[in-house]
From TrEMBL:
It is a multi-pass membrane protein. The Tat system comprises two distinct complexes: a TatABC complex, containing multiple copies of TatA, TatB and TatC subunits, and a separate TatA complex, containing only TatA subunits. Substrates initially bind to the TatABC complex, which probably triggers association of the separate TatA complex to form the active translocon. Keywords: Cell membrane, Membrane, Protein transport, Translocation, Transmembrane, Transmembrane helix, Transport. GO terms for cellular component: TAT protein transport complex. Belongs to the TatC family. It comes from the Bacteria. GO terms for molecular function: proton motive force dependent protein transmembrane transporter activity. Pfam families: TatC. Part of the twin-arginine translocation (Tat) system that transports large folded proteins containing a characteristic twin-arginine motif in their signal peptide across membranes. Together with TatB, TatC is part of a receptor directly interacting with Tat signal peptides. The chain crosses the membrane at residues 27-45, 83-102, 114-136, 169-191, 198-216, 222-242. The keyword Transit peptide does not apply. One of its GO terms (biological process) is protein transport by the Tat complex. This is Sec-independent protein translocase protein TatC.
Amino acid sequence: MARARRKDNPEGNMSLGEHLKEARNRFFASAIAIVVCSIAGGFFWKPFVGLLTAPVKEAAGDRGTINFGTQTQAFDQLLQGSLFLGFVASSPFWLYQAWAYLQPALTKKEQRMSLGFLFAAIPLFLGGVYLAWLIYPHAVRALYAFVPEGSTYYLAAAEFIQFVLRLHLAFGFAFLVPLLLVGANMLGFVTGKRVAKAWRIVVFVCVAFAAMAAPGPDLFPMFALAAPMLILFFVAVLVCMVNDRRRARRTIAHATTDEVRPVSAI
């Protein structure tokens, strides 16, 4: 990997020790950003938990409650929740640090491509999390519809909060899958036609995932999740096919240029 060029190092090469030092500095910078954002997230944790539990209280009414089983469980959830908020809030910074560490080893074209993927990944991930936030109340009401009349429902706070946070992360990472397909295509691992042939499997997986993430008799939450995922998938297929055609044209152009190139006299 190369770094900034100096007079005593015109090629900008680095030793293994310098690589490790650079990685350590990037890691510590990212860790500090996560810690700072986590501390800030701690001040918003109680209002955030209030927003998470509002659909539960609305659906369960007097028949359900959220129970913190031990004296320290509330503090444990505060630490975990603050770390989650800090991790998400600082994601643009630590993603940039990862890109900045790899950037000098890439060509100019690869740098532009990787920077475009970085700027696309952040809104896609946050968009998936936001969609989960919109669907989550519908899922809670649907699940509480299965509670028998006259029964009470005690929900363990630790399991509930972890389930909700994992659900939001799952939605966010699910929105990154089409971007990974495009990246694999640009690297030459898969072709657009090969990805398109799997559309039946993708439709089934997206609908099944949406049905599990948004269960219940109401079909709107399921389609609200499945539709964006399918749209992103078919957009990724289109981008892959366009990229394949460009790659094929470049290959033909290079082959034609090599054929018409005059042979120098010996």
